[in-house]
Design brief:
Elements (H helix, E strand, L loop, with lengths): L4 E2 L10 H33 L5 H37 L3 E2 L21
Antiparallel strand pairs: 1-2
Helix pairs in contact: 1-2
Amino acid sequence: MDWLKKHQPVVRSAAGWEWRIFKKIHWFWFAGFVLLPGLGLMGRAYAGWVEMPRSQEWIMQMDFFLWGFFFFYISMMIALTVGCVLVIIMKGPRYSADSYPVPDEEPLNQHSDLLIK
């Protein structure tokens, strides 16, 4: 069943930044999921190698910062992905599921007595 019909003529907009970003977005996701925990592990290792006074407090502050940045990063990546998908859909061809002719209606100015003056 062909329930989506493409309207003719198809006018497509030129591809812009959305396709360039969308093709590389998986690397951004991967970088966020690998680099941020990697920074946390490196900070813990550094605190273990260097005998720092109050190292537990430093590790806890670093963890809070990295968790906050991680959730910020994930929310920004979700927004960027959704934005790219929406722009790609909006620039694509126009489809309609139930294209049928609308019956001609009377112009609004013929019913001017109904308008509030």
